[in-house]
Amino acid sequence: MIKFLTRHPEKIYIPLLEHIQLVFLTLVISVAIASILTLLCMRSERLSIWLQQLLAVVYSIPSLALFAILIPVTGLGRTTAVIALTAYNQYLLLRNFTTGLQEVDSAVTDAAKGIGMTWLQVLTRVQIPLAKRALFAGIRLAVVSTIGIGTIAASINAGGLGTLLFDGLRTMNMPRILWGSILSAGLAIVTNALLKAVEDHL
Amino acid sequence: MWEKMIAYIMTHGDALLVQIGTHLWISLAALAAAILIGAPCGYLAADSPGIEKWISAPFHVLRVIPSLAILVLLIPIAGTGALPAVIALTILAVPPVLLNTIVGFRDVPPFMTESAAGIGMTDREILWKVRIPLALPMIFAGIRTALVEVIASAALAARIGAGGLGEVIFTGLGLNRMDLLLLGGTLVAALSLLCGGLFDALTRRLMPYRQL
């Protein structure tokens, strides 16, 4: 294992970097879309229920199946992976965002409206600061789930740590299998712990 | 595309049925094993904080580890084939069942068990007639999470030689055949949604007294 690391360091750190890149890209797009959807859901109860149910259905589609279904439409590669991962994240993010914002004490928001704040001011100065831990918890869940499902994205040529796992599996190459498993598990555990620490400080 | 898919179903229908069967068999075996391990452990952990500290921390970590890593990592230990796949899927399915069982038993309000004791129920009666029925909706929610996860990961298990519908998808990827990808993907997705729906119906049937 150490020999593999010293001899082919690029075969380990490139997938790792690719993986982090994939997760980061997905996260940025997901949070942007989820924020817009959350705002829409706060406006309309019916849309909110309908959207949550739809996303729950999408979320329970196995990732390999979703990748397979998307390939005829968007082809192999990172684009497809990002689309699928973003779709999964919407369920986690939207659920946490809406419940987080709803759990803000209505007395506080009413008071804010009472002193003449516009809804945008209420949102950015009252609701978001008060709900930031719940919002951040949603992001943490989404990141950890993206790291996990992201390994499977290697099966559709999206790169990342899954390449080590799938290649290792095909050639029965133990160092690759072990590095792939350890790094993907480690990345998930470390990221989760770090974000949890940030969350507890908020 | 459609003609190709239908032609494939016509010629490989028997193989597809076997693959669906294997997929279900592997998933349900793993789920059953996970319930047999997770529920009793969860019950024990819920009753004693000492055990809970030791059980729940590692399982929280286990939940975070990517399923593909667990599946692949098990090969050097257990080899390839259906049995290692069942073992790996069981490891994946235990955490949701176990953690939800702990929460389920924890959340039974103390006044319920106290009044049960007050009307003269024995400990065994309190367990079977009060605590388990009240904890069951939460436990079933955990089992449902595990079910969906197991069916999804069983598709990956085709990669370690366990068979199942994942084979169709991986063959499609290998040969770049869109019809196989679409067919395999749709079947796995349908299987997952169908099992989830059936499980919801079962939950409603068994526990009309409390909806989650």
Structure description:
The complex is a heterodimer of chains A (202) and B (212). Chain A contains 9 helices and no strands. Chain A has helices at 2-7, 9-43, 45-59, 63-74, 78-102, 106-114, 119-152, 161-171, 174-201. In chain A, helix 2 (9-43) packs across helix 5 and helix 3 packs across helix 5 (78-102). The mean pLDDT of chain A is 89. Chain B is mostly helical and 212 residues long. Chain B has one domain (2-206): Orthogonal Bundle (MetI-like fold). The longest helix of chain B is centred in the N-terminal third of the chain and has 46 residues, at 2-47. Classes of the chains: A mainly alpha (202), B mainly alpha (212). Chains A and B meet through helix 4, helix 7, helix 8 and helix 9 of A and helix 3, helix 6, helix 7 and helix 8 of B.
Low-confidence stretches of chain A: none
What is the percent of helical residues of chain B? over 70%
How many domains of chain A? The number is 1
Q: Write the CATH architecture name of chain B.
A: Orthogonal Bundle
- The CATH topology of chain B is given as MetI-like fold
Distance separating the two termini of chain A: 40 Å
Which descriptors apply to this entry?
heterodimer; A: 202 residues; MetI-like fold; B: 212 residues; mainly alpha; 0% strand
What's this entry about, in short?
The complex is a heterodimer of chains A (202) and B (212). By secondary structure, chain A is mainly alpha-helical. Chain A has helices at 2-7, 9-43, 45-59, 63-74, 78-102, 106-114, 119-152, 161-171, 174-201.
Layout: helices, strands, pairs:
The complex is a heterodimer of chains A (202) and B (212).
Chain A: H1 2-7, H2 9-43, H3 45-59, H4 63-74, H5 78-102, H6 106-114, H7 119-152, H8 161-171, H9 174-201
Chain B: H1 2-47, H2 49-64, H3 67-78, H4 82-106, H5 110-118, H6 123-157, H7 166-175, H8 178-206
